[in-house]
Amino acid sequence: MEAGGSSTQSIPHVGSLQIDEDHHWELVTFIVENHVFRLPVHRFIEESETFTKLYGLDELLALPAHGQSHPLFNAIELKVDIRDFRAFLKVLYPRRRTESVSPTTYDEWVSILKLSTQWHFNKLRKEVIAALDEHKKLSTIERIKLAEGHHISSWLIQGYLTLVERTSEITEAEGEQIGWRAAIKLCGMRERRIQQKYLLVSIERSLRTTFASDLVKIQESEAKYDIETKSHSANSPTNPTAPIGSSSRASDSGSGAFTFEVSVIPTACKL
After folding, report:
1. Residue 182 and residue 161 in contact, taking contact as beta carbons nearer than 8 Å
2. Which DSSP category does 95 fall into?
3. Residue 181 pairs with which residues in a beta bridge?
4. What helix, strand, coil percent values describe the chain, rounded to 5?
């Protein structure tokens, strides 16, 4: 036996060899923007049933010739941005044992959110949402846009709540980004907040009612990812699992309560 423990004896007869269950990995080839990626397939299968079915990974592994040396054999083309895919691989397959799995930039986090949502890597998606939630570069407007694009209901409410409660007005540029319909409704709520020194009704509850139809659509998609969002805590003023009303107004039936109504663009905004 040579130094370092390596053996110089010949390899045993093939018939006596056994494949190790944990450390004999099958490889899969992906093509993204004319770049070839060759990766262990196990995490794609373990992390997302949706991805596995979408690209037939189980059937691919069952093919008799799977694993042959040609790099393009049974290659799967992914119609995604290569920057998004590379960021995604940073957390799925870090290159070094001591390397942090955290992406280095905000844009990389957003890329991972995009693909983990698209491909239903549910556990990873949940981790990315938690990380982005604390990221200093996540602006209020970006939070709202990501909430709508990637089905995160708590972020939509949180973003709208910030716009209603903050001191500065909603600007024309912000209104264009979040949509004029939402901006006008939020301006109405800001006007009411300014006029009333002490609110007799929860702003968050009013937001949930005013934007009920939008929330229902997001929550229906969000439910597919089985995520328990931060804003739906036990202390939340509303039950997150309860049906949301379809009224376009936010009102309170208690004594002295008032109703939010939007008919004109209020002076609380720069629209």
Report:
1. no
2. S
3. none
4. 50, 5, 45
Euclidean distance between the first and the last CA atom of the chain, given in angstroms as a whole number: 80
Q: CA–CA separation, 252 vs 269, rounded Å?
A: 24
DSSP designation for 64? T
Cβ atoms within 10 Å, residue 139: 13
Q: Which of these, 205, 179, 212, 182, lies nearest to 259 by C-alpha position?
A: 205
* Dist. CA 205–CA 208, nearest whole Å: 5
pLDDT by residue for the chain (271 residues), tens digit each?
A: 555 555 555 666 666 788 787 777 888 999 999 999 999 999 999 999 999 999 999 888 877 655 555 667 789 999 999 999 999 999 999 877 665 556 779 999 999 999 999 999 999 999 999 999 999 999 999 999 999 999 999 999 999 999 999 999 999 999 999 999 999 999 999 988 888 754 556 889 899 999 999 999 999 999 999 743 333 333 433 433 333 333 333 333 333 333 334 434 445 677 6
Hunting for tokens 């018939």 — which residue is that? Answer: 15
DSSP state for residue 237 in the 8-state scheme: S
How far apart are the C-alpha atoms of 228 and 167, rounded to whole Å? 31
Q: Which of 147, 140, 181, 143 is nearest to 164 (CA)?
A: 140
